Amino acid sequence: MSGKGERKLVIGYDALTDAAIMAGCRFFAGYPITPATEIAEEMARKLPKVGGIFIQMEDEMASLMAAIGASLSGLKAMTATSGPGFSLMQEAIGFAAITETPVVIVDAQRVGPSTGMVTMPAQGDVIQARFGSHGDYSIIAIAPSSVQDIFEHTVMAFNYSELYRTPVILLLDEILVHLREPAVIPDKMEVVERMKPSVPPEEFIPYGGEIQREMPSVGDGYNLLIESVLHDEIGRRIGTDSIKGSRMIKRLWNKIEGNVEKIAKEEFFMMDDADIAIVAYGSPFRSAIKAAKIARSMGIRVGVVKLITLWPFHDSMIRRVSEQVKAFVVPEMNMGKMAREVKRAAGEKRVISVPKLGGSLHTPEDILSAVKEVA
Amino acid sequence: MRRLDFAHYLAKKYMRTEMLPHAFCPGCGIGIIQRAVLMAFEELGEEEWNRTVFVSGIGCSGWTPTYFRRDAIHALHGRALPLATGIKLARPDLNVVVFMGDGDSMAIGGNHLIHAARRNIGITSIVVNNMIYSLTGGQLAPTTPMYSYTNTSPYGNIEPNFDLIELMKASGATYLARWTTWHFIQLKNSVKKAIKHKGFSVIEVISQCPTYTGRYILRKPDPRDYMQWMKDNSVLFDVAKKMDKKELEGKIVVGEFLDRDDRPEFSELYWSLIKKKEVEA
């Protein structure tokens, strides 16, 4: 996917903002919030130099709505926030979902609920990312676990948002935003561009087919009706027609869930002969790898499944792994949220959740002791 | 052209006729507002119409532009202006016209309203003020007159109401007008001016809701009586200046309140900054 590049020391938010610009992002609206503030600061500096727009809005609801407005006008757009701001954005996430507007939302997770622990990392928003807005829709969420990942996955987030015409959530945590480590920053990556309609306005169906990849901007003469009300293929309000309504909701659901095999990404480490799988994502993945290596030195056959996409959840992949292993260990900086998904897909196999709370990251030993429990 | 023929001509030229009949109650003021806006565009010419995008919030007023055959975005309750801000910044060449209700703009969206005015972003806001929440069935709005009865003020409203014009003047808007639906020609002329205006413009339209305001607050369920009431109680801005507080009680002060060009328009300012930074980079 990536071209050649230079290996250098990079900090998370720098990689993220450079990648966003490489992916074609030309609009950022945001509101300061720890630990996502640096992303806004970087975008404020970088965007005008490439002809892009940065605006600090009056709150997070406004930020996401402005980003959606810019996306509807033809610009690739992004916003970044953390827990409390992410909660405020939920209604607008639903709006982006029902209007099928590509937009990337970065959530640099910190400890909650409420104001929580402002400067400390967590992974407490993973379920909110999937189910946060009311009603039935589906969404794509991606969780990088290194600065290298941040760069590549940010481009992936923009590409997915265009391919599936959907909001994409990039789930970081405080550690990753402020992590400085060596990464190879590619000179070029494959970028998915917005497709303009191939037919004249009178023949164009804005919400037709499984996914309508062609998306005219406002002002292009297509007389778009962009409705937050449940609408038909043309954008007209459905009203009380439950048959049409159910069809349009299923369409929103299926364009993501029905393409899970194409969307879902994960990486396997030491899994060939493993009979225990650690399923990890984000920062805890880093401890998981170390834990697996220590376990191997002790003769325990442990592998690691690194989730890159969290949503749509890759059930079939976990099912396949469950045929090979006797147990799953799921370390998370929350009370065990993705562990529930793993449990759901793992059938009869044991799933041990390893929560780490209060803003600290698992040590390899934390994970190791859970591994020993099932070894 | 006869008046009815002209109405049909406007509808055929500018509306999604396949979506008619519309969903508004009989006697609603929004039809008059739609016609005033379409007539303004008819007079402004095709070029202006072709580079216009409509945005609206939620409420009866939110449905206004969805009948226009033009780009129309029916957004979230209170969040029409931030969405419009994104559009105007991305496409400063477009006319962005936003329809909001009184609750939409001054209650749930109040923060966005004052910040859009502060930035003086080139958006035309048409605020349909019927003094009540109508789509939800007649509840208290930030514009409901004191001591009147609604479904959520069953013992009389004891909250003072907003004066949108004063609020917008203080926040930094640069074109301000208020009319009732009775003042059709004046309203149409203000819409024309507001669309051509460079900064943030607000037109407040006092509009009849015979269904709720008419029955609950004014005791005028017949839209003709309601409109007569609006006509009889309207005082022109210039005349009102010479009247004292007591004389103005219960009156609707109408007119063009402000038209200034001494504050820079936001999207224009931002794009000149981008051009400078691009050259430096």
From TrEMBL, chain A:
Keywords: Oxidoreductase
Domain of life: Archaea
Enzyme class: oxidoreductase
EC number(s) given by UniProt: 1.2.7.11
Enzymatic reactions: a 2-oxocarboxylate + 2 oxidized [2Fe-2S]-[ferredoxin] + CoA = an acyl-CoA + 2 reduced [2Fe-2S]-[ferredoxin] + CO2 + H(+)
Start and end residues of each Pyruvate:ferredoxin oxidoreductase core domain: 274-367
CDD domains in the cross-refs: TPP_PYR_PFOR_IOR-alpha_like
UniProt GO MF annotations: 2-oxobutyrate synthase activity; pyruvate synthase activity
NCBIfam families, per the entry: PRK08659.1
Quaternary structure and partners: Heterodimer composed of an alpha and a beta subunit.
Protein name: 2-oxoacid oxidoreductase (ferredoxin)
Organism: Candidatus Methanodesulfokora washburnensis
